[in-house]
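Reply to dn_fold:

You asked what the input looked like. This is it:
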Amino acid sequence: MQQIVVIHGGDAYPDRETFRQSLRAWKVTINKFIYHKDWKYNLQEDLGNNFQVLNPTMPNKYYAFYEEWEIWFEKLIPFLTNGVILVGHSQGGIFLAKYLSTHIFPVHIHKLILLASPHSDSDYLGDFALTVPIDNVPDQCDEIHLFQSDDDPLVSFSEVEKYHAVWPQAILHKLTDRGHIRQEHFPELVEVIKKNS
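and this is what came back:
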């Protein structure tokens, strides 16, 4: 069975007061409080029974710290098998890039897929910022895929271009009118996961 690990996004801040200020200023609509399943929670159904989707809830999503995510992520690793596919959305993507740049992953990674992931131009990276080169990451993966929408209000398209400059072998998937990729289903991702898996 093909395993897929999906690491969700989040926000990181330099200190608690900055977090509180951001929380106070955060504009929301009623939709923020209505339960809905986005692609991360529909992925298992969309892929079918030959796949196992693991969706860990990373600690403190709205006030995240890299070291806490690292500790929790490493609790998952013993359950992973060779050929795993790692998917990181938004902050989950920069987390995977940073983690793989500083660790040798103990199982073979078939695909690394980053979706709408910041690289360096964001006020919300905190200690997720890439402080070491990431050019060694492709050595651990058969394939790397980068997805970014041209109208993302949170992560500019220039961020995916920075990843692509360091990883020229990565396949860049440019999306249109997808914002920060929060739709209910994600057929392009399903297609990439299923191909050669």
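The first strand starts at residue 2 and ends at 7.
Hope that clears it up.
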